[in-house]
Amino acid sequence: MPSHWSRRTLLASLSTAALAGCVGDDPTRSATPTGQSSSAPNTPQGTPDPPDSLDSAWPVPGAESGRSNYAAGVAGPTEPVAELWTTELNGSLTDPVVASETLYVGAGEVLHALNARTGDERWTRSLSGTTETPWVVGESVYVPTSEAVVALATDDGAEQWQADLPSKADGGFFATDHGVYALTEGDEPAAVALDHSDGGERWRTPLTRGPSAAHLFASDDSVFVSSGGSGSTPWRLTADTGDIVGEKPGIATDSPNPRFYRDETVFSRDFLPAAVDARPAPGTDSGSQWREHIWVTGLGPLSAGADHLYCVAPGDSVEPRGDGPDDSPGLYALGLTDGSRAWSTTDIDAATAGRPVVTDAAVIVPTADTLHCFDPADGTQRWTVPGDDIDETVIVVEDLVYATDGETVRAFRPP
Fold it and tell me: 77-102 burial string, b = 16+ CB within 10 Å, else e?
């Protein structure tokens, strides 16, 4: 499980924030809407059938290169889901990805390719090293391990190439249409671009220091490297040459602060005081710029849909500054362009919530014992189902929800 999105990391960060206290400048805030709270427990009726086909995908962590966790053009499951299939594997599992009706997941030192409709095994491939979450681009599935990156053919798992990276940072990997990228650490930390065709090194850009959170994301022509916490500016490197765009970031404080990119804007979270930041990407002034405080002791993962950003706020309530709203732990929806509050709900166990998954008609949030689904527009709870066997990361392909737990992969679908 990627450490930078994990509940363990989040709770540790919240403990640090609570001890330090909430301090900061008095912000400008939007009006507070009435929070939504409409419990909608549901029991699905019947047993789901496998779909005839799957025309969409979730091919990389975060769904797309900006890593917003948004499946655009997909309605998602708007009715309660039930278990469609379960497949037991051997070894601790990575997050899954899905492309061309195939689910890829790492288990220990083995990559498994499963039929995403039925859970049946298509092929397996043993690797030399513990697998991290796979990435699918075109006809290749790229598998980072502890000391290398391996490219396999999507149809049969045949090895296409292997690039040894003995100093690769844990979790420091990214693949998209314009390249394959890795972060190295040690005495000479760097961002490294590899060629899709053979794994050869295209360029290497030294970094100020090894990133505190090995997190990468991309636009159509650039790759971004998170440079630390507290809203710090990421490195923006051109995809073709690795040149730094805009000002070179300074050294930031250590903090696991994942970001995502959308329309020349980089979105991130801050802990002290808890806030969501939107800033123009380096090298441009055309992106959105705003900052919205949520008056709790810390914030969890961010996601975004077509119009709203969704943020889990798991920390305890704190005294707001000025005319700030009295916030509570829960799920918050903010306008992407201005940070205005659209809705909030306390109908989740925010302290155990994973990263929201967003589709055009659903916001799905896993917690320790429940899977929740909300209407993206107004926060109305569409359904809840028990989720004891669901880990903190789920993905959605059409109306199917995929999740891992221990050594088990599960698929859910409305009956």
Answer: bebbbbebbebebebebbbbbbbebb
